[in-house]
Specification:
Elements (H helix, E strand, L loop, with lengths): L15 H4 L23 E6 L4 E8 L19 E8 L2
Antiparallel strand pairs: 1-2, 2-3
């Protein structure tokens, strides 16, 4: 999660990653509102069968929230599911 980032440094007001009106538009908002707050619901778990073999499941952004880390310039993807088999040798 992140709280809204609206108390901006003067340099952030000129940064397209923070104040752009639409992705890749190159047009800055005036006044700039900053980056809104967000939270995601994630579940992760797994099992180790022995010292060398484990199976893990990660379910990320279950609410399919559209969010952006402040200053990243990229909106995060929606729901994500990953199943991993870990083998150490």
């Amino acid at each position: 999660f992140a709280v809204g980032q609206d108390r901006l440094h003067p340099q952030d007001l000129l940064d397209a990653r923070v104040c752009e009106t639409a992705p890749y538009s190159g047009i800055l908002q005036h006044p700039c509102d900053g980056t809104p707050g967000w939270f995601t619901l994630n579940l992760r778990g797994g099992i180790n069968f022995n010292k060398r073999l484990g199976l893990f499941l990660a379910l990320s952004n279950l609410s399919d929230t559209n969010y952006r880390n402040h200053g990243s310039g990229f909106d995060a993807p929606g729901f994500d599911a990953r199943l991993s088999l870990i083998v150490d040798f």
